[in-house]
Each structure stands twice: as structure tokens, then as C-alpha cells.
Amino acid sequence: MMLIHLVKRDFLIVKKYVLLMFVVCVIIPPFMVWRVPEYAGPMSFVLSAIFAIFMLLQYVSLKEYQYPRASTMLCTTPYPRKLLVLSKYVFCLVNYAVCCVIFWIETFIFAELGGFHFEMPILMFLVLAVFLGVYLPVQYKLGYEKTKFAFVVIIMASPFVFPQLLKMEDGINLDFLNALPPALLYGGIILIGLMILIASACVSVEFYKKTDLE
Amino acid sequence: MDLVLNVSGLNKSYGDFSLRDVTFSIPEGCITGLIGINGAGKTTTLRTILGLTSRESGHIQFFGMDIEKQEQQIKDRIGIVLDDGCFYDELSLNEMKNVIAPAYTSWCEQDFKYYLEQFSLNPKQKINTLSKGMKMKYALALALSHKAELLIMDEPTSGLDPLIRSQLLKILTDYMDNGGKGVFFSTHITSDLDKIADMLIMIDNGRIVFQEEKDSLLDSYRIVKGDMRSLNTDTRKLFVSTSETTFGFTGITKQISEVQKRIPDIIIERPTIEDIMLGSIEGGKNDVNPFG
């Protein structure tokens, strides 16, 4: 129950932006159908999900950065620090679920979006798990400002790194994945995603436990 | 008498500053003041015992329970007021309350409404529109609305006007009258403690200087004023600290009968807590005139 209240807290402190992100999430797929129909479909789902989840997470982190002593205050209450950390992960997963539902409903309204196949949310879940799995522990270790700086550096370096990664990918044979039964493949992806999130949450909790609060 | 808080051998380093072997205890039924000048280690001590900052060593027990093993149960039984609010300023009073209240098993909505009314606070008001005094009152309303048995406050009177300070002191005495088991608060405004404290703990440079009942502490010290000619190497040793001018000296002593024997022409006064605090601070002898 405490966890639910802490997730509610995350929504509350960014309540100004929640509605905005909801609107953005609703608008992106039909907008892409209108302007770039060839990319509508999975791409519009990925874009709207990335936008909503990562922007809202950024706003929550920004508010916590602006009011660091509010987190200190919460740590003086019976809320365990562990739950304060876990609430961030749950917050992002709730946002992700909402994005999935919005896009699923929109596929009924806009036929151009195609169907809402289960592969799409599962692959997106893996992307989300990898991102959160890295981002949140780094943020708990380095703090909001340094993490933002570190990720800006990564984004700036990505045009140089991606071609190298693509070259490396040529050397990796992933054909065996196609031979796997879909249930096993996607079940495995969900499992890997969950394991990444659990491992990441454990690391974040350890970092936050050792943090000296202001 | 049962102890509501027992701290022993607490050590913590913080950059250039460190808490060294901090040991004290707070008996049930007392209002206890943690005094010391700015930077003495009051806030660090409070934050460390609350687990907000890590410690290198030491044991902390609230109500006989170890903070490491039973942190959640302990925090459910204590109310905490940190200096300057510590809230999400963009939320309303009610919204912030909705964040905090679910953490407590004994949250009492009626008490919360009662305190808001008492303090003339509007639950729909945004926190960033509150004055410093109002924020402190709101923090108190939150701390007092879950049947807290011990109230811990960090510099609650700092920066407040005398009227709000006296209201706060009245709230604290009412809280004790209504069944509170203890109040522990840090302050450098010692006049507040003159009025309500039962017990005093002084910290300086990260070390506990003394822990004593206020009345026996005030009884054990005396301020002595006399002629400079009567002050020599031997008589100086009778004083905790002295301040000397061409007109005479003012000193604080714990050996008043001995001083009276050796220096006949003296004026004796009762000290305030501030006199004792400043006299006890080693640096106070050289840097400031503690009895001016």
C-alpha cells in the first residue's frame, strides 16, 4: 500500500505535466498517420511511449532535485528508502501501461496504425527496462545534474558509436532467434526485461541507502 | 525512568567536521534541548540519529528499540520537524498531507484538522505561499497528527518572530501535558529553553560537553564580577572562563564557595543558559565576550 502512495506522490509532484504528456501520447499516433503515414504504426507507439515515460521521469527527477529536502522529510516518516526507490520504477511501468492502452485504443480508431500486436509492447518493454536499468542507478549514484550531463555526452557520442555498433552487429548471427517458438522468444524477452529491472532496482536501493540526505 | 532515546558512541565524519563519541540519553517525560553554536553539530547529530545520514559507529535506541532493526516501527512513533519545512512547495497543504499521512499507522485526520484550525492554516493553500512561521506550524501539525510519542525538531524557533516562538513553546508544553513522552529539539536560541526545557545537552565541535537537568545546571554555575587585582594564576583556575577589561573581570565558575573564600569583594549573579553555553565553549574565551 505504501508503494502505491509513493507512486501517487510521483504523479502528484508532476501533475502539471501529466495531462500534457497524456495529450502528447494521444496526439502522436494520429499526427504521424496524417504527416508521415509510412512511419505510423510501431514507430508512433515507440515515440509516444518514449516521450511520455522519459519526459515524466525527467520531470519527477527535476522536482526532486528542486526540493531535495522533501525527500529527506519522507525519509523521516515510516516510508522505507527502498520503497521510495521502487516507486520510480513502478511509476515508469504505470506510464508504460497507460501508453500501451492509449495506443491499443487508437488502433481501433485509426486503421492506418495497423494492429496492436503483442511483439510491439514486449520489445518496447525491453527497451524501457534497459534504459531504466541503467539510468536510475546512475541517477541515484551521481545525482540529477551529473546524470543529465552524462546522458547528454552519451547522446552526443551516439552518432559516432552507432555505426560501430552496427558494424559489430553484422558479425553477430541472430538468426537462431527466428527459429525459437514465439512464446519462448517473447517470454524470454519479458523475463530478461524483468531481471534487468530487478537487478537495477537492487543496485539503486543500495545506492540510495548509503546516500547522505540534505 | 524509561529512556525514549539512548545514543552511545556515535561517530560520523562530514568533510572537515566530525561527531566524536556522541553519547547521551533522553528520559521519558522531559523536554530536552540540544544546544550549541552554529556548526557545533546539532543538525548532524539529529540527522544521524534519524538515519538520514550514515554513521561510522554507535548505537541508537528509541523506546528501547534499535533504529537499525526496527526503523519503521520507531519512525511510526515519532514526529519530526526539520528546519524550514522540507516540503514540495508547489503542492497544497492537503496534497502534501496526502503524501505523508499514509506512512503512519495511527494517522488521525481529526487531529490534523484541529491543528490546521488552531494555526489558521487553509488546507487548500499552496505551501509556497506560507511564511516561515506558518511552514513551521504546518510541519508541527503533520508531526502531531499521528499520535507521536516523541517529538524531534531541528532548530524550530530559528528565524521566527517572538510571538510565533512563544506560540510554539506553548504547543510543546500542551503536547507534553496531553501525554507526549518527550520533546527533543536543537536550538541556539537558549532563551526558549530557559522557559520550557527540563534537560539540556550541549554539543560543541562535534562533542557532547554536558548533559544535565536545567535547574541543577543553573544552580551549579555562578557569574562572578570583581576587581582585576584579585585575579591571579591560582584564582583563574577556579573559573570555567573569564572575560577581562581594565575595569574588572567577569567569570563563570562551578566553585562559587571557593571563589568566595579567595576573592572577598565580588558580585555574584545567577547565569542564564546562554552564559553557561558560551562559557563552556573553549573558543568563547578568546573570540567573544560571553558575559558582556
Structural overview:
The complex is a heterodimer of chains A (214) and B (292). By secondary structure, chain A is mainly α. Chain A has one domain. Chain A is built from nine helices and no strands. In chain A, helix 5 (81-109) packs antiparallel against helix 9, helix 6 packs across helix 7 and helix 6 (119-142) packs parallel to helix 9 (182-209). The longest helix of chain A is centred in the middle third of the chain and has 29 residues, at 81-109. Chain B is of the alpha/beta class and 292 residues long. Chain B folds into two domains: 3-215, Rossmann fold (3-Layer(aba) Sandwich), CATH 3.40.50; 221-287, no CATH class. Chain B has helices at residues 42-49, 71-76, 93-100, 109-118, 132-144, 162-177, 190-196, 214-220, 233-236, 256-262, 273-280, 282-287; strands spanning 3-14, 17-27, 30-35, 57-62, 65-66, 78-81, 150-154, 182-187, 199-204, 207-213, 222-226, 239-244, 249-253, 266-269. In chain B, strands 6-7-8-3-9-10 form a six-stranded mixed sheet, sandwiched between helices. Chain B has a four-stranded antiparallel sheet with strand order 2-1-4-5, with helices on one face. In chain B, helix 4 (109-118) runs antiparallel to helix 5 (132-144). Chain B starts with a strand and ends in a 5-residue tail after the last helix. Mean pLDDT of chain B is 89; it is low at 286-292. The interface between A and B is medium-sized, with 23 and 30 residues.
